[in-house]
Design a protein that fits this description.
Distance between the termini: 15 Å
Helix content: 25-40%
Number of strands: 14
Largest sheet: 8 strands, mixed
Shape: globular
Bound molecules: adenosine monophosphate
CATH topology of the largest domain: Nucleotidyltransferase, domain 5
CATH architecture of the largest domain: 2-Layer Sandwich
Number of domains: 2
Length: 398
């Protein structure tokens, strides 16, 4: 079975075609600057092609992707009908979509009505699904996999805000979380690496990248997560502020006479480690600057570590115990210093850290010693494969 995974953004469309017999990636690539002018990159094995091309809309982008997937030189399949299903990444499924599902016209319209919750991300996903149906026909199932699904098991104590209750009931204002596909994938891998059933384990998964979130997984189910109503909440991130006193918002808005859109843009794009350091949102740049004595870059790194530790501690308290912590995503997978600082500072919780094993980047590894009361792991995330696996499960009717 071959499954095409699509991650559509407002001006971009990334894709990977999986062979589900061995989970290998047959081809992948991306369309960028859609609606602006257009750029395309396609990689299949050792063959790669890049071009500037007119991409006025997502339909043209999908047409181009399918053209190259079936191309005589760069292609990996003969016909579009060789694709058994398409899996689409969707940021927010609200409460209406607690699980991945095969889309039909009614469900697409429902998803379209949820744009209020993810104004930047959901509309391009709907556009991507419609474009696929238009270009590929109705016979190839289109599946949506939601970043919020894994978090739907959170109890109300973790998901409801202390606002008047009708704000939750009538307006759906609650914690949704994000990165759910990643947290679900690495939590399952962690159980596999421990040789245990997920139902026996209390795990904290740390997805630390440009966007970061931490999730408490008790018995294989999400019971709390750091992102909230939107992905702005929780940890400080590359450019996002994370949790701050909500009273700071009206204070800044009045002081600088700025609008709702301007404050939203500011909190999403100008804060986090970028705003703190004044150097960069990229952790590699921060480490280089800190090594040269830049105090603000060092503060940004220290604050990040501090907040990760606080989440691990608070989620252990929430779950009443802790068996394992997982580090994943760009920073979690590639930053041994950060992992060592966090795990050694938390030694009192039962981490017996293995500095030698921790010298790993982008590969799965256990980074605590055998017999450590709490285990720590590096597990590369693979959101695309997780989407393909959910898609396969649904189309096979399992
Ligand atoms: P992501 O959003 O998961 O792609 O993660 C992006 C972040 O990962 C950036 O802040 C990078 O600094 C960090 N990152 C990616 N690769 C490396 C690496 N090889 N070493 C250190 N940090 C890395």
């Amino acid at each position: 079975m071959k499954i095409l995974v699509i991650n559509a953004g407002s001006s971009s469309l990334k894709y990977q075609l999986f062979d589900m017999t061995d989970h290998s990636v047959l081809a992948k690539g991306q369309c960028e600057r859609i609606t602006v002018d257009g750029a395309f990159k396609h990689v299949a094995g050792d063959k790669e092609i890049k071009m500037e091309v007119d991409l006025p809309n997502h339909k043209k982008a999908i047409e181009l992707v399918l053209k190259y997937l079936t191309d005589a030189e760069y292609g990996v399949i003969e016909n579009i009908s060789d694709i058994s299903a398409v899996g689409h990444r969707v940021v927010n499924g609200g409460e209406i979509f607690p699980e991945s599902c095969i889309m039909n016209e009614e469900k697409i319209q429902t998803l379209d009505s949820l744009t209020e919750f993810a104004p930047l991300h959901n509309p391009p996903a709907v556009t991507g699904i419609r474009a696929c149906i238009e270009v590929m026909g109705e016979s190839i199932p289109q599946v949506c996999v939601f970043d919020t699904s894994f978090h739907q098991t959170m109890p109300k104590v973790a998901s409801v805000y202390a606002l008047p209750y009708e704000f939750y009931e009538k307006h759906g204002i609650r914690r949704f979380g994000a990165h759910g596909t990643s947290h679900k994938y690495v939590a399952a891998k962690c159980a596999e690496m421990m040789g245990k059933d997920p139902s026996e384990l209390k795990i904290v998964t740390c997805h630390l990248g440009n966007g970061s979130s931490i999730t408490a997984v008790d018995g294989g189910k999400c019971v709390d997560t750091s992102m909230g109503f939107t992905p702005l909440a929780g940890l400080l991130m590359g450019t996002r502020c994370g949790d701050i006193d909500p009273a700071i918002l009206p204070f800044i808005m009045k002081k600088f006479n700025i609008s709702v859109d301007e404050i939203s843009d500011f909190l999403n794009k100008k804060c986090g480690v970028l705003g703190l350091s004044g150097v960069s949102s990229d952790f590699r740049d921060l480490e280089a600057a800190a090594a040269e004595g830049n105090d603000r870059a060092q503060l940004a790194l220290d604050m990040f570590n501090y907040q990760v530790k606080k989440y691990i501690g608070s989620y252990a308290a929430a779950m009443g115990g802790l068996d394992a912590v997982v580090f994943t995503a760009g920073v979690g997978e590639n930053n041994p210093i950060l992992r060592e600082e966090i795990c050694t500072d938390l030694a009192y919780m039962g981490f017996d850290f293995d500095s030698e094993a921790n010298k790993v980047r982008g590969k799965a590894a256990k980074i605590t010693k055998d017999g450590s009361r709490v285990a720590a792991f590096v597990i590369p995330t693979n959101e695309e494969l997780a989407i393909a696996l959910d898609t396969q499960m649904l189309v096979e009717g399992k």
